[in-house]
Design a protein that fits this description.
By secondary structure, this protein is an alpha+beta fold. It has four domains: 3-280, Bira Bifunctional Protein, Domain 2 (BirA Bifunctional Protein, domain 2), CATH 3.30.930.10; 285-404, no CATH class; 410-466, no CATH class; 481-627, Threonyl-trna Synthetase, Chain A, domain 2 (Threonyl-tRNA Synthetase, Chain A, domain 2), CATH 3.30.980.10. The chain has 19 helices and 19 strands. The strands form four sheets. Strands 1, 2, 3, 4, 5, 6, 7, 8, 9 and 10 form a ten-stranded mixed sheet that branches. Strands 13-14-19-18 form a four-stranded antiparallel sheet, covered by helices on one side. The protein has a three-stranded antiparallel sheet with strand order 15-16-17. The N and C termini lie far apart (70 Å).
Length: 628
């Protein structure tokens, strides 16, 4: 069964049960500073689980793409992925355990065709300290549904996962009681960490058994549903929100109880084909097949590399298809990290040429059925990823050569944190890539390499802030005080246009005298009066903030690809360029390649006023402005 079939069967099944199918949320949520990405199916529904009424009613279902980078180091095993899709259904005070448990069991056994004898479940064992009862209700419902399917499901009292590692399972056991580390849901984690005022409650997880031959007793202990290893794989979790934590730390029953179900699309699909390896399913295997073709190597002998590439490029496609672009900040940096790790693993496979253009269309085809209002940038995604791959390969080639030079120059062949900083600062070779490459090549790192790197970084930032101006080149009529002020005002104007009018605006030319500034920029229409006023107000706001203006010298490719510096003539720049940053170094208002001169802080500029906005040539507009 294909993943797309499983997804559609689930949505159709829930629709027949009276659920309204809601559209998935974007991977990058707006107005949610608590997280970089949508990391679970329930995350976009949290306001409604906390009591806000949903406009579509109290029975909802969806299939939500999600991304969790905290699992990035685990990718390479048979089931961990950074990107995944959660099948979800919710009852906001409508049905509860006796309806939810049989329904999910029917979906797995009747719609997907799983063998009931290979299904194992867990329930909450209770907590005497807080007076929360054992969830015998859920266990008894499970026993009944197993019985109707011809399985005599016995109940086991386990407690902690560590207890289960010692005990294992006994014949006939299918229902297991665990403590709050395994079977309690709250936004804080276990019972002790449940936030005051939050809804919370026991959950009942569902596992698929891939067979006794998959267990590794020597490594993981005795197999049981909550154990590590390949035998049991969680495929769904039903959270029963029936409590609320009070101000005094105790818990009370909710009058209106909710159900929050989430099931992994990839994992349910893997169970449907009886594969403990999720990379064998339809969303991932075609990517693996293409990597085998490009590398001439087999998946069986190169599983880690191929799994990482398949996972990371799938995540990178979904992010770029939703409009995110690689950058050096927050979500953009996470995207850049996924791409770079994929390229590094491709090199490990011997794929030296650009390969993203060969792989990403396969991934895109797997998501043709996701709605356009989610994947709003399908057409440009491949080009964005190709560009990032080419830039990173150039950076890699240069950085690897410099790394080898450093090793040869050190008597002991050791890379220090200062070396790693120089690789990043001068050549754009990212710190984490240097570390990974050092481990890959068995290169010794100094004992305190991270602390040394951090110290060098702090020193560089302080140097940037206190750097003095010398004599600068630039397209100014002179280097007097007013021309210098107008030059800085030009940078602010361009930044305001990019922020408020169009992010694709770039400078097309400028002319600065002691009396005024003139900036040409690409735009195929005139600015509206409202836009002109907004740009003027923004520049004046930045002037009022009295932002620092600093510069430093960087490798050209690092300035462009990692710092995201604005520039006009990349092909004409020297390999080393001067970059001016206005505002906070890590979140600048403006960052441009420029010869100078500039003021040291924006507060000295005075009041900025746009006198005229007009056409300069086809597709180019011109602003003339003064400082008063």
């Amino acid at each position: 069964m294909k993943a797309s079939e499983v997804r559609q069967k689930f949505l159709d099944f829930q629709k027949k049960r009276g659920h309204k199918i809601i559209a998935p949320a974007p991977l990058v949520l707006e107005n949610d500073p608590t997280t970089l990405f949508t990391g679970s199916g329930m995350q976009p529904l949290l306001p409604y689980l906390l009591g806000q009424p949903h406009p579509l009613g109290d029975k909802l279902a969806d299939s939500q793409p999600s991304l969790r980078l905290q699992d990035i180091e685990d990718v390479g095993d048979p089931r961990h992925t950074t990107v995944f899709e959660m099948l979800g259904n919710w009852s906001l005070g409508d049905y509860f355990k006796k309806e939810q448990i049989p329904a999910f069991f029917d979906f797995l056994t009747k719609e997907i065709g799983l063998d009931p004898a290979k299904i194992y479940v867990t329930c909450f064992i209770g907590n005497e300290k807080y007076g929360i009862k054992k969830d015998t209700e859920a266990a008894e419902i499970w026993q009944e549904v197993f019985k109707k399917a011809g399985v005599d499901a016995k109940i086991a009292e386990i407690g902690s996962a560590a207890d289960g590692d010692k005990r294992g399972i006994k014949p006939g056991e299918h229902i297991f009681f665990y403590d709050d580390k395994e079977n309690w849901w709250s936004r804080g984690g276990g019972i002790e960490s449940t936030p005051i005022g939050d809804p919370c409650g026991p959950d009942s997880e569902v596992f698929y058994d891939f067979g006794e031959d998959k267990q590794d007793v020597e490594r993981y202990g005795q197999s049981h549903p909550a154990s590590d290893g390949a035998r049991f794989m969680e495929i769904g979790n039903q959270v029963f929100m029936q409590y609320r934590r009070k101000e005094d730390g105790t818990f009370e029953e909710l009058a209106k109880k909710n159900v929050d179900f989430g099931g992994g699309l990839e994992r349910i699909t893997a169970a449907s084909i009886d594969s403990f390896d999720v990379f064998k399913i339809s969303l991932l295997k075609p990517i693996i097949d293409k990597l085998e073709e490009l590398s001439g190597k087999s998946y069986d002998n190169n599983t880690d590399e191929m799994r990482i590439i398949a996972d990371h490029l799938r995540g990178a496609y979904l992010l770029t298809a939703q409009g995110l672009t690689p950058s050096n900040k927050q979500q953009g940096y996470a995207l850049r990290r996924l791409i770079r790790r994929a390229v590094l693993k491709a090199l490990d496979l011997g794929i030296a040429q650009d390969f993203i253009s060969e792989v990403v269309p396969i991934i895109a085809g797997n998501y043709d059925d996701l709605p356009d209002n989610i994947l709003t940038h399908r057409e440009t995604a491949v080009a964005v990823l190709e560009k990032e791959e080419r830039a990173f390969r150039q950076t890699l080639n240069k950085g690897l050569k410099e790394m080898q030079k450093m090793i040869r120059q050190d008597a002991d062949g050791i890379l220090s944190g200062s070396d790693l900083f120089k690789l990043q600062d001068t050549y754009g070779f990212p710190f984490e890539v240097s570390v990974e490459e050092a481990y890959r090549q068995n290169i010794t790192l100094s004992k305190d390499y991270k602390a040394e790197f951090d110290a060098a970084l702090a020193e560089q930032r302080e140097r940037s802030k206190t750097a003095s101006k010398g004599m600068f080149k630039g397209g100014l009529e002179d280097h007097g005080e007013m021309s210098t002020k107008y030059h800085t005002a030009t940078h602010l104007t361009l930044a305001a246009l990019k922020k408020l009018v169009d992010g694709d605006i770039h400078q097309q030319g400028s002319n600065i005298t002691p009396e005024r500034m003139r900036l040409d920029f690409n735009l195929d229409r005139k600015l509206t009066p409202e836009e002109k006023q907004a740009v003027e107000d923004q520049v004046n706001a930045w002037i009022a903030d009295d932002l620092p203006v600093v510069f430093d010298t960087y490798d050209k490719e690092y300035a462009r690809d990692t710092l995201g510096a604005e520039g006009q003539f990349w092909d004409k720049y020297d390999d080393s360029v001067k970059v001016y940053t206005i505002g906070d170094f890590d979140a600048p208002v403006s960052r441009e390649i420029c010869g100078g001169p500039h003021v040291e802080h924006t507060g000295v500029l005075g009041h900025f006023r746009i006198k005229k906005e007009e056409s300069s040539s086809a597709g180019v507009r011109r602003i003339k402005a003064v400082l008063e």
